[in-house]
Design brief:
- The complex is a heterodimer of chains A (379) and B (324).
- Chain A has 2 domains: 91 residues; 259 residues, Orthogonal Bundle (ABC transporter involved in vitamin B12 uptake, BtuC), CATH 1.10.3470.
- Helices cover 78% and strands 0% of the residues of chain A.
- Chain A has 16 helices and no strands.
- With 324 residues, chain B is mostly helical.
- Chain B has one domain: ABC transporter involved in vitamin B12 uptake, BtuC, CATH 1.10.3470.
- Chain B has a two-stranded antiparallel sheet with strand order 1-2.
- In chain B, helix 1 runs antiparallel to helix 9, helix 1 crosses helix 11 and helix 7 packs across helix 9.
- Chain B is globular and about 55 Å long.
- The chains are: A mainly alpha (379), B mainly alpha (324).
- Chains A and B meet through helix 6, helix 7, helix 14 and helix 16 of A and helix 4, helix 10 and helix 12 of B.
Chain lengths: 379, 324
């Protein structure tokens, strides 16, 4: 074993990167057993899943569309977690971003699209940042746990959304109708984000990938990004080095919320073209605010790692929908499958770290043995 | 409101706060030993579902509570095992379990939604219930209410007045010192995380078997987070946690009352009140506002006031302990 570790370091690095994917495969294996319990043929089921996620141009586009908000939220989570703050408020920040951008679109129906879209996305970015900065301020200056305050902010955002969509912002058509579905009017078609190919794929996906690269540059190639990571690693050392810890906590929460807000705005302008609610948070967000956290962990809290991670999760979600439709398994099976993937990935990461420690220990042992041998030769 | 209406309101507030009191006591035990079980919201949903389903099938509420306690301790065990043995982030595990509990309860309980089932029977304590005003509020209640109050007393006594309680707190405050004194820190953490989880499970089942009777997807959603906030508000003390839970119950009742009085104001405003209030409370507790207020008080009572009002989390909360 010893020689294998030291002679093939590159093999092990590739193995490290592949491990999350292997873990996913293992989870799908357990899922196969569950499928058999439901009397479904797992090969047919996973065939349907693959087909649903990658089988056609449309399927692939749907996967990318699903991955887009996940990627943006995961980027926000990367910044927050690297800065040592746990942002669970993605759902609320997403809702705020979507609301703000919708209002901008509804208020300026006659503006040309090339002016309005950037303005609306900016509004979403700012609104999400605002909603994220509040828990950041509370944490930095009043010592309020951000885990709890972001959860509360989510609940408040949902209530606010329900109010706005049932009363001031409701579609005038719905106001006449008896059903009164809580949704806004459709935004002008001039504001739709450009479609890339004749599918549902829109420009937002490209924007999200650019955002991932920008976040990488920000965190690892700028002074402010370096300070955020320093504060996350060791607040005490940062304070000693003259970095203002509270300011950087607020900043990382603000940016984190802003990226979630941008995700909300892109969902509106790229996909839904109107805001709607079913009374809960997930109706509009599809739990992207929570799933984004899982994606970020899957990508090992690295902005570029989040790109394949979000693609994989998007594929899992879209493919699972198809699987459910084809095989008629309960929709909750899909949820259980997602949970399995998360559990497997997290435990694989633990295993990887333990292996790495053992590898290091063995290398050190080898080196000591070598030195001892040399000492013997000399004497 | 006349006298009897007031009594009725107070006793209903008491009943509505009961699950929160039980869950808060459980989480205080867990956090005092140094572990944060963030999965409360998901655990309570799972426990509410399991409790109802088992009680429905066995036609016995107490078996339902037992099953709920088992589910709660199982979830808590995952958190403890993940953070102690696997050295993963407690917050990440707890959070993933929250999501899992929410979805899994919807999945497993899908055939049992919105059907009538067994209910905990009302039990008035003889003699005591005849005391005017106090009697109907405190002693003409469901058994769970009595259980909650006894639990607060027992937890408080256990934590602050017994040897095992001292060992428990050493695990959360100074694990190294406790270890040097021969306390098995990680065993303490396993033990109290699992006990705390069982109490959270009972809290979940008391919703589905006593307060919001029956099961529906997401029926207790949100209460777990509120319990976590109340633990902080209560400064990790069972008695103050109980007061926090009652205060929360009172604001909820007030919101319902105001809603009936002012129907022209949107329902949403009242639904949001408890959450906004929670943030304000956390703000008040976290800032040095209380410290400054104490300094205004006369010198002679400053010391005792500080002892009562000071709030600090267990020093080693959320950190892992590695034996050398």
């Amino acid at each position: 074993m010893q020689s294998f570790f030291s002679e093939h370091p590159r093999v092990w690095r590739i193995f490290d990167i592949l491990l999350p994917f292997l873990a996913t495969l293992a989870a799908l294996g357990v899922g196969a057993v569950m499928l058999m319990i439901f009397d479904a043929n797992p090969i047919v089921a996973y065939g349907a899943m693959l087909d649903g996620a990658f089988g056609s141009t449309n399927a692939l586009a749907d996967t990318l569309v699903k991955a887009t908000p996940l990627l943006l939220v995961a980027l926000g989570i990367c910044i927050a977690f690297r800065g040592g703050v746990i942002n669970i408020g993605g759902e609320g920040q997403l809702i705020l971003g979507a609301l703000a951008s919708t209002v901008v679109g509804l208020l300026n129906p006659d503006m040309p699209g090339w002016q309005l879209i950037p303005l609306a996305l900016l509004a979403g970015f700012i609104a999400g940042g605002f909603w994220g900065a509040i828990p950041g301020l509370l944490k930095a200056y009043f010592n309020v746990s951000e885990i709890l305050s972001t959860i509360m902010m989510n609940a408040i955002a949902v209530q606010g959304m329900n109010y706005l969509l049932r009363e001031p912002l409701i579609d005038p058509v719905q106001l006449e109708a008896a059903s009164r579905i809580p949704q806004t009017a459709r935004l002008s078609a001039a504001f739709d984000l450009p479609r890339l190919v004749p599918t549902r794929l829109h420009l937002g996906t490209g924007l999200a990938i650019i955002a991932a690269i920008l976040v990488f540059i920000f965190l690892w190639r700028t002074v402010v990004g370096y300070r955020i990571r320093a504060v996350g690693l060791s607040p005490d050392a940062s304070r000693y080095a003259g970095v203002s810890v509270p300011k950087h906590i607020v900043l990382s929460m603000l940016l984190s919320g802003a990226l979630c807000g941008l995700a909300g705005a892109i969902q509106i302008y790229g996909l839904h073209h109107r805001m709607f609610t079913d009374g809960s948070a997930t109706g509009f967000t599809g739990s992207a605010g929570f799933n984004g956290i899982v994606v970020a962990l899957f990508g090992q809290l690295h902005p570029l790692g989040a790109i394949p991670a979000s693609f994989l999760f998007g594929a899992l979600l879209v493919g699972a929908n198809k699987l459910q439709r084809v095989m008629q398994v309960p929709s909750s099976f899909i949820v259980a499958l997602n949970g399995l993937v998360v559990v497997f990935v997290v435990s694989a990461d633990y295993w990887r770290r333990r292996l790495a420690r053992r590898r290091e220990a063995e290398m050190v042992g080898e080196m000591t043995a070598q030195t001892e041998a040399e000492v013997e030769v000399v004497s | 409101m006349d006298n009897s209406a007031l009594v009725l309101t107070l006793s209903s507030i008491l009943l509505a706060s009961t699950p929160l009191i039980i869950a808060v006591c459980g989480e205080i035990l867990t956090e005092r030993s140094g572990i944060v079980n963030l999965s409360l919201d998901g655990t309570m949903l799972m426990a509410a579902m399991t409790g109802f389903v088992i009680a429905f099938e066995s036609n016995n509420v107490w078996i339902g509570f037992l099953a709920a306690a088992l589910v709660g301790s199982f979830f808590a065990f995952i958190v403890a095992f993940g953070s102690i043995r696997l050295r993963q982030s407690q917050f990440a595990i707890g959070f993933v379990l929250t999501l899992l509990g929410d979805d899994l309860s919807a999945f497993l309980g899908q055939n049992y939604t919105r059907i009538p089932g067994p209910v905990v029977k009302h039990y008035a304590i003889p003699i005591l219930k005849d005391i005017p005003i106090i009697g109907p509020i405190f002693f003409d209640q469901d058994p769970l209410v009595y259980f909650a109050f006894i639990l607060v007393g027992v937890t408080s006594f256990w934590l602050f007045r017994t040897q095992p309680g001292l060992r428990l707190r050493s695990a959360g405050e100074r694990p190294e010192a406790g270890f040097a004194r021969g306390v098995n820190i990680n065993l303490q953490r396993y033990l109290y995380t699992v006990i705390g989880g069982a109490l959270v499970g009972i809290a979940g089942a008391s919703y589905s078997l006593n307060i919001k009777i029956g099961w529906a997807e997401g029926s207790t959603r949100g209460f777990g987070w509120i319990a976590l906030a109340i633990v902080i508000f209560g400064g990790w003390s069972p008695v103050r946690g109980m007061l926090g839970a009652l205060l929360f119950g009172a604001t909820k009742a007030l919101a319902t009352y105001l809603q009936r009085t002012y129907p022209e104001v949107s329902v949403v405003a009242f639904n949001a009140i408890p959450w906004v209030l929670m943030i304000l409370v956390l703000l008040l507790v976290g800032s040095d506002f209380t410290e400054r207020m104490i300094l205004i008080a006369p010198k002679s009572i400053q010391r005792p006031l500080q002892r009562i009002l000071r709030i600090a989390p267990p020093a080693a909360l959320g950190s892992s302990f590695i034996e050398d």
